[in-house]
């Protein structure tokens, strides 16, 4: 359920790295805890994000939760499909329902993130 090639945060975000691009999303655990997601607020393309900084929010029928960036970089793409269908985050959080893509400013930041095995242990699975 948690792809081994992703890295995870204790705030329940994930990042997948390809070259100098990081794709960021929320974990299956996060979407399960949130419940039915009804709205996603994402940064604008071109925005700079810092590791640990807020990059947007997810609103569910239960609560609004901030999304924190697992890495630093510049936003190069946002998942426009989530504007019309935010519930996709409940259906495919580790796939088509990614949130943003960033051009990394420091690939070393990934080293401090959790592996899939460490994340599963952290959430008690």
How does the SSE layout of this entry go?
Blueprint: E1 7-8, E2 13-18, E3 21-26, H1 28-34, E4 37-41, E5 48-49, E6 54-60, E7 64-68, E8 73-78, H2 81-84, H3 88-91, E9 100-104, H4 116-122
Antiparallel strand pairs: 1-2, 2-3, 3-9, 4-6, 5-8, 6-7, 8-9
Structural notes for this entry:
By secondary structure, the chain is an alpha+beta fold. The chain has a single domain, classed as RNA polymerase II/Efflux pump adaptor protein, barrel-sandwich hybrid domain (OB fold (Dihydrolipoamide Acetyltransferase, E2P)). 18% of the residues lie in helices and 35% in strands. The chain has a six-stranded antiparallel sheet. Strands 4-6-7 form a three-stranded antiparallel sheet. A hairpin with a 3-residue loop joins β6 (54-60) and β7 (64-68). The N and C termini lie close together (11 Å). 36% of the residues are buried.
Low-confidence stretches: none
Class per helix and strand makeup: alpha+beta
Give the total of beta strands.
Answer: 9
What is the CA-atom radius of gyration, in angstroms?
13 Å
- Write out the CATH superfamily name: RNA polymerase II/Efflux pump adaptor protein, barrel-sandwich hybrid domain
In terms of DSSP E residues, the strand content is 35-45%
- Identify the CATH class: Mainly Beta
Number of helices: 4
In N-to-C order, the SSE pattern is: EEEHEEEEEHHEH
**CATH architecture assignment name:** Beta Barrel
Q: What brief labels describe this structure?
A:
125 residues, 6-stranded antiparallel β-sheet, OB fold (Dihydrolipoamide Acetyltransferase, E2P)
């Amino acid at each position: 359920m948690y792809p081994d090639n992703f890295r995870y945060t204790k705030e329940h975000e994930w990042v997948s790295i390809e070259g100098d691009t990081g794709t960021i999303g929320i974990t299956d655990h996060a979407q399960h805890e949130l419940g039915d997601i009804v709205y996603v607020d994402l940064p604008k393309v071109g925005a700079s994000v810092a590791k640990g900084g807020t990059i947007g929010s997810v609103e569910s029928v239960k609560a609004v939760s901030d999304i924190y960036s697992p890495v630093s970089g510049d936003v190069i793409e946002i998942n426009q499909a989530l504007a019309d269908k935010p519930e996709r985050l409940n259906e495919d959080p580790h796939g088509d329902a990614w949130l943003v893509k960033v051009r990394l400013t420091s690939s070393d930041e990934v080293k401090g993130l959790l592996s899939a095995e460490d994340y599963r242990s952290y959430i008690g699975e």
